[in-house]
Amino acid sequence: MIQESTPAVALIEEPTARRRLFGGAVGTFVEWFDFVTYAVTAPTLALLFFPKSNPSAAVLGTLAIFAVGFIARPLGGVVFGYLGDKYGRIRVMASVILLMGVATGAIGLLPTYASIGIAAPILLLIFRLIQGFSTGGEHSGALSFVLESAPSDKRASWIAIIYAVTILPSLVLGFGIIGLRGAIGDDAYTDWGWRLPFFLGALLACGGLWIRLKLSDPQEFVKAKRERVAASKNPLKTAVVEEWPALLRVFVLLAPTLIAYYLGITYLYTHMVSNLGMNPNTALLANTLAGASIAILVPVLGRVADRVGRKPLMWAGAAYMTVIAFPAMFLVNTATFWGAFGGSLLLASATSLFVSGSIVTMLELFRTSSRYSGHGLSYGMGTVVFGGFTPIIAGSLIDAVSPSAPAAMVVVAGVVGMIVLRYTPETRDVVLTTAMSRSVADSVSDGEGNTTKPDFNAGSAQYRH
Predict the structure, then answer these.
(1) Residue 253 CB: number of other CB atoms within 10 A?
(2) CATH assignment of 8-452?
(3) Beta carbons within 8 Å of 448's beta carbon, 6+ residues apart
(4) Is the pLDDT reported for residue 31 higher than 50?
């Protein structure tokens, strides 16, 4: 029977907890700045790292390498997740940001196809794999660190802040590249200017490493490890064998979490420039402004999730994206600034609604002892399927069907989200140490002194602090 207790994070003074939030956020910004630099420079990379004889093939090749970065994420999630659960969050989080900085700086130094031929895209592929491997360890580690550092009644809002921070690099890079192009001209940007964001990313990684080395593991994790709760010999095995329902739920929840985002914020910029012939600066401005709305909306909605629960926001987001998907693509395909902005904004608002509940839920489904491993594995695999391949599938659908065809992906994602929500528990009041584990399924209190078995197939579960 789970006894009522004060969460370990309550032992942390608020100023200390806020410093942990700041430290986690800064490191996350740097890591994602490095990772998304590839995405915002993709149209230029397509020109420089592939033969110019087939522009469509060059774009698809660049998007394929973008997807490869996601293929490496599950491996990074597994390796770094295991190490993070076994030896601590901070040491692993410092390692991944160092690895990302090296890979990002190396991309900025690469010769182009005109200089070394086929070796250029091969080297680009290798360093993108390293970026993906690093990000697989970063995302779950930073989120676990912040969740375990947060006051129990602010977990959704704190995680929402970290998610918003992952959006900010896209905005900074978007506006930065617009300014850079304006300052040096399009020819100079294509010749050498595209390398500057990669060099900046490598320098920022050094600063992020310094900040993370000054942090310490959350008391939630330290306390659990001291009590031997977190000292499992193999936390990855624990996650797979005992917490497989959580693994499955996280994987499926990533469909609505990621598809609308990677279509609206990542792929549509390439579509606007390469397929619709829009001016790169106009397209990037429209797309970047829409992305900014996510960074604003998600922290606000995270506070709502702390008050009313996670599932109401996810239900609203899943239903909303099925309604706005085709109107969004129609607006984008007008190839005007306002159409592109309006369509991207619709997809961004759908993303904001859903992720405000889903991001924290996917962490709270795992207990402290295996959270990093379980979340890293399931989130990494989900991003391969629903994140990495969304741009290339969208591009193929446009070539084979119509410019509006990718909207069907968003509709399907919304429907899948509504189905899985029926079988996902509300986690607002979950105890982080035990969370949603089959190993504790036989000892959950109903709040009246009785012991009941939670139904893992039910739409809600009973938890108490």
Answers:
(1) 29
(2) 1.20.1250.20
(3) none
(4) yes
